[in-house]
Design brief:
By secondary structure, the chain is α/β, with parallel strands linked by helices. Helix content is about 50%, strand content about 15%. The protein has 18 helices and 13 strands. The chain has helices at about 15-25, 45-50, 65-80, 80-95, 100-120, 135-145, 155-160, 165-170, 180-190, 205-210, 235-240, 240-250, 265-270, 285-295, 310-320, 350-360, 365-375, 380-400, and strands at about 1-5, 30-35, 60, 125-130, 150-155, 175-180, 200, 220-225, 255, 280-285, 300, 325, 340-345. α1 (about 15-25) packs across α18 (about 380-400), α6 runs parallel beside α8 (about 165-170) and α12 (about 240-250) packs parallel to α16.
Length: about 400
């Protein structure tokens, strides 16, 4: 099959799961190309190499150019009122939110270019990896190419943003995809007018690749966490918990991997707490380096205020490291408290410290959590989730052809 993924920015440091998803589909024998609506990041080439996307064609058409004008003329000749129709549809739904309206209108010319690209390339199906601003393009494609299978992902940010174009775009798609059963229920509760079937396909991780890192010598007392440096990721709580942890486990030390706008505040907190020799901010590193560091940890922590089954937590479990996390959306589908990991309330410093101490001081508990996690994580294997996606697109294509 020939599939198009439409995203906002690809690759991006915070969206490695998309690269894993695309690679998984390619490994199943599909051709996958990517269109990024917002262009490229300055370190695009490095991110392509880090996320192993060198064999995938990634394009980022301009917002407006002679080419986009030609594409709009082309579609206007095919359907004389199509440009006015799309502009009216965006204005009618977004006028109460001026900033959203402006950004959506900016995407109108580019959407016609994407439609022309889809027609010229002869894609079998198109997947919209986000359900907010890409919904403008999804809405247009369904109008221009009703026989083309379309899927729309609704995950976290795009569901919470409640872009006015999302519901009509979702209702014109063939399937809404999301990454947890809990998220599927939230979509039904938040948007009861969404009539398109919702299908859960977990974001997969490359378990076979991770197996090579298992069994690395464990560094006593090493706590690893990896997530963007943002306040809601809870790194500050993990840092504050270290005083109590080190009172029980003097060799305990923390390595935090990731980059973000909260770095200066975290550096100041580390200095204020007198923990400069105990906490290391490792920055953003290639995944191979992160896997190697995590595999040596005695415990992995991710104590976010909000998250949606992050791949970093799955990867730690697949590496054979006991995990501690918080009860964010859908977490019960990944970590069962006391069975495959430990779950603590967000912001509870004492509970976080006590959980880390339990794992560090009880090798039998750590081993039991690890064994159970290695068994349960198999349902997140990219081999399985990619096959589910492959089968879905084959089914949608057959249904369209049989109409």
């Amino acid at each position: 099959m020939k599939l198009l993924y439409l995203t906002m920015i690809t690759p991006a440091p915070s969206e490695v799961f998309l690269a894993v998803e695309v690679r998984g589909l390619v490994q199943r024998g599909n051709t996958v190309k990517i269109v990024a609506l917002r262009g490229r990041l300055p370190d695009h080439d490095k991110l392509v190499a880090d996320q192993h996307l060198g064999a995938v064609e990634i394009s980022a058409p301009p917002y407006f150019s002679a080419r986009t004008l030609a594409d709009m003329v082309y579609w206007t000749r095919r359907s004389p009122l199509i440009v006015l129709w799309l502009v009216w549809a965006v204005v009618a739904r977004c006028w109460r939110r001026p900033s959203t309206l402006l950004l959506s209108l900016v995407l109108v010319p580019k959407s016609f270019s994407v439609a022309r690209y889809v027609e010229q390339e002869g894609f079998d199906a198109v997947h919209f990896a986000w359900g907010h601003y890409p919904a403008v393009t999804a809405y247009l494609l369904e109008r221009l190419m009703p026989d083309l299978p379309l899927t729309l992902a609704l995950g976290a940010y795009d569901r919470l943003r409640r872009n006015p174009m999302t519901i009509p775009a979702a209702n014109h798609a063939d399937r809404v995809l999301t990454q947890s059963e809990r998220n599927a229920q939230l979509i039904r509760d938040d948007w009861p007018r969404t009539t398109t079937p919702i299908q859960v396909i977990y974001r997969g991780i490359e378990i076979n690749h991770l197996r090579a890192y298992r069994g690395a010598p464990t560094t006593p007392g090493l706590i690893v966490s990896s997530a963007r440096l943002l306040p809601h990721k809870g790194h500050q709580n993990m840092i504050r918990a270290l005083h109590k942890i080190r009172a029980a486990v003097p060799q305990a030390h923390l390595m935090i991997f990731g980059a973000g706008a909260y770095q200066a505040e975290l550096e100041q907190l580390i200095a204020d707490e007198g923990l400069t020799d105990v906490v290391t901010l490792g920055g953003h590193v290639p995944h191979e380096q992160l896997f190697a560091a995590t595999a040596r940890a005695s415990v992995y922590t991710l104590v976010s205020e909000r998250d949606w089954l992050p791949n970093s937590l799955k990867e730690a479990m697949a590496l054979g490291v006991p995990v501690i996390t918080t009860p964010t959306t859908g977490m019960e589908e990944l970590v069962q408290d006391g069975i495959t990991g430990l779950v603590v309330p967000y912001g509870d410093i004492d509970a976080t410290a006590d959980a880390v101490i339990r794992v560090l001081c009880d090798p039998a508990l750590a081993e039991r959590l690890t064994r159970a996690a290695l068994e349960s994580i198999e349902k997140f294997d990219i081999e399985l989730t990619s096959q589910q996606r492959h089968d879905l697109y084959e089914s949608l294509i057959r249904q369209k052809h049989n109409r």
